[in-house]
Structures are given as structure tokens and as C-alpha cells.
Design goal:
By secondary structure, the protein is α/β, with parallel strands linked by helices. About 35% of the residues lie in helices and about 15% in strands. A hairpin with a 6-residue loop joins strand 11 and strand 12.
Length: about 375
């Protein structure tokens, strides 16, 4: 091990004998009491020295081997240490792609904060290359989601949509003006390729062989018609429920942005559960929904560019969190923000007993709350 203080966490002295790593309450950790010799030793934790050399240099500061071992152990437990060589074969393969890693250094730094184990952030970043995500929709939201996922290192991003690109589909970070008139799916595939980091996976310890297609890790449902997100059709989602495929809804309807729910089949409420609950709360809802769904809309649907971009960014972040092994706040819940206040609010969407998805018969997935208070660790 070559211990290295995580560069992503800013360091500051809270007083004469206490150091704080990190700025925000979600990730800040304090270290103390801290004497001058131990404070000087921290400067040696830059990833260039192994433990034997660290112990040797610590003796010159009158620090014992035991003091060094305890300090390194507690820094590791607090999630403050990384290791430039950790992460396993997948991380090693990513390190060999120097150009790719240079582009993704900000992502790796962020993941190192979220995942405390040395090498944990880079391991998850490397694992994304073997994952396959399907984005259903190539409008202002869906195209941007696909671009962000591809640019974040997801190795297989496919976009499904019909028709041809219209001028109002164009958006920064999404389909470009040059794609107007092209097939939407073709334009979206080109966008994904342009956004990709380091080209397609070449195969490796955890990457699928080139001739086989990885199983779907996630479906992002981001149709151009926001009604299909606000009131998703249970029949459309039925095959995903049957196959156990996680899916996340995201879109804009009128002047309201929607992210979620992230549906874990058999574990959280689904589109069918949502439909049943709405019908119970408002007996007229099914009648109105049938009218809204019937007929063909000839006018361009409302979709504010700023709101669509915010929805796409939040949806992509939730999708990446899930792909990295976490349960984001959209799991079994819906986040909404309406113009002009744009105050994001969440609503839990629990399983319904009458829905045949089976989620109501199991304990609903529990979310682990994010850290909200500064942690403390003693170095003495």
C-alpha cells in the first residue's frame, strides 16, 4: 500500500491541533488532536511511499512505528486515504489508458470521496465500461442523458426513438443543429459516440467479450412526451418488470420536471402501483388520462430548455449512482420541480397490494440516508 491523502478533499486547520478534511457536511471529517510532528507527517502521505519508508521517515520526526500504523489505520477507516495502485485489474486497465483517465480525473476524484475504500472510486469508474444502459427517447432530456452517461464512462449506451430530428429537439449537450432532418436514433448514436470516453471497451477481466452483448443494467425512460413519464403506462413497463430490469423515469411535462421513480422490479413501486394509487386518490383520474392519451398532438410540447437540462443532469446522476452500486433518492420515489420556483420536492411511491408486480409482498428497499454531520476521528 502507498497511502495517499485523497486530493479531492480540501484540508484546513480548525485550530492549533485539529485538521478538517472536506468542506461540505456530507463528507467533512475532522482529525485531532494533532501535534506538530503528526501534522508534518501528513505531508508525506502523497502516494509515493510505502509503509516501511513512511515508518522510517516518521522516526526522524520522533514518531513511533505504532503511532504511524494507528494513524494510517484511522485515516483509512475515516475514508481519507487512497492508494494510487489499488482498485484491482479493472482499475489497472483504466490506468493504462492514459488519455481516457486524464479526461475522467474529475469523475474519479468525486467517486473517491463517495466510496471510502482505497481504490474504490477508480474501481467503480472502470466497472462502468462493461455496463449497458438503454435510453428510451432522444428529445431534449433523453439525448442529454445518453450523452452524459457515455461521457461518464458507461461503455454501452443505446438510444431508442423514432422519427426525424426536429429543430426543437436541438439542445446544448444533446442533439446538434446539424442533425435536424436525420433519423433521431441515428443522430443519437452519433452523439453517444462523440461523447464516449476512450472508445468502446476492449475486453478484460470484467468486460464482456466483444462478440457478446452485456445484459441491460438499466433502462432510462425519457420519452419526448412527458405524459409518458408523469403517468407511465403499466403495459409498456410489463416486460421490464417480468425480466427484472431496473428502470428510471425522467422527463418534462408542461412546465414541470420529473425524475423518478427508479423502479427495482419486485422491490419498489412500479408504474402499475402508481396508476392504482392515483385512481384511488382521484376516481376521475383514469377518465382524464384516457382523454390525454387519445388522439394525436399536432402542437410542439412545452419543454423549457433550462428545466430539461436540469432534469437530464439529475436523472443521469441518479442513474450513475445506481450503476455504481448505490440506491439514489429516486429509488421508489419521484422528484418534481415546477417553474417558476423550481423547488425540487420528492414523493414516495410505495408498492400497491393490488398490483401484480409483486413488490407489495416484500419488504420495500430501504434507502441509506446520506451523511449529514461532520465525523470525528482521533489520531492519538
Amino acid at each position: 500500500m502507498h497511502p495517499m491523502l485523497k486530493p479531492a478533499l480540501r484540508r484546513a486547520w480548525r485550530g492549533r491541533n485539529t485538521v478538517q478534511f472536506g468542506v461540505t457536511p456530507a463528507h467533512a471529517v475532522t482529525l485531532g488532536p494533532m501535534d506538530i510532528a503528526t501534522g508534518s507527517f501528513l505531508e508525506l502521505l502523497d502516494g509515493t511511499r510505502g509503509l516501511p519508508l513512511l515508518r522510517e521517515e516518521a522516526r526522524a520526526l520522533d514518531l513511533s512505528d505504532r503511532h504511524v500504523d494507528i494513524l494510517v489505520s484511522r485515516l483509512t477507516e475515516a475514508g481519507l486515504l487512497d492508494d494510487p495502485d489499488a482498485g484491482g485489474p479493472e482499475a489497472d486497465a483504466l490506468r493504462r489508458r492514459a488519455e481516457t483517465l486524464e479526461r475522467q480525473r474529475p469523475d474519479a476524484a468525486a467517486l473517491s470521496v463517495v466510496h471510502p475504500t482505497p481504490g474504490g472510486g477508480l474501481r467503480r469508474l472502470a466497472a462502468r465500461r462493461a455496463m449497458r444502459v438503454q435510453v428510451r427517447g432522444a428529445g431534449r432530456v433523453g439525448a442529454a442523458v445518453a450523452a452524459v452517461l457515455s461521457g461518464s464512462g458507461v461503455g454501452h449506451v443505446e438510444v431508442l426513438d423514432g422519427g426525424r430530428t426536429e429543430p426543437w429537439d436541438v439542445a446544448p449537450g444533446g442533439l446538434p443543429a446539424a442533425s435536424v432532418g436525420e433519423r433521431r436514433d441515428t443522430a443519437a448514436r452519433q452523439l453517444v459516440r462523440r461523447s464516449a470516453v476512450g472508445g468502446p471497451p476492449r475486453g478484460g477481466a470484467s468486460e464482456a467479450p466483444a462478440r457478446s452483448e452485456p445484459a441491460l443494467s438499466l433502462i432510462v425512460v425519457a420519452p419526448r412526451d412527458g405524459l409518458s413519464v408523469y403517468a407511465p403506462d403499466p403495459d409498456t413497463a410489463a416486460p421490464w418488470i417480468a425480466s427484472g430490469t431496473p428502470h428510471l423515469y425522467a422527463g418534462v411535462i408542461e412546465a414541470t420536471g420529473v425524475v423518478g421513480p427508479l423502479v427495482l422490479p419486485g422491490g419498489t413501486g412500479c408504474a402499475g402501483c402508481l396508476a392504482l394509487r392515483r385512481a384511488e386518490a382521484d376516481p376521475q383520474w383514469p377518465r382524464m388520462l384516457a382523454q390525454w392519451r387519445s388522439g394525436r398532438r399536432t402542437c410542439v410540447q412545452a419543454c423549457d430548455l433550462g428545466l430539461a437540462t436540469a432534469v437530464a443532469g439529475l436523472a443521469a446522476a441518479h442513474a450513475l449512482s445506481f450503476l455504481d452500486g448505490e440506491l439514489p433518492a429516486s429509488t421508489g420515489a419521484r422528484w418534481e420541480a415546477a417553474m417558476p420556483m423550481l423547488d425540487w420536492r420528492s414523493e414516495r411511491l410505495g408498492p400497491h397490494l393490488d398490483c401484480d408486480c409483486g413488490a407489495a409482498g416484500h419488504t420495500e428497499v430501504e434507502l441509506t440516508p446520506a451523511a449529514g454531520a461532520t465525523q470525528d476521528t482521533m489520531a492519538g
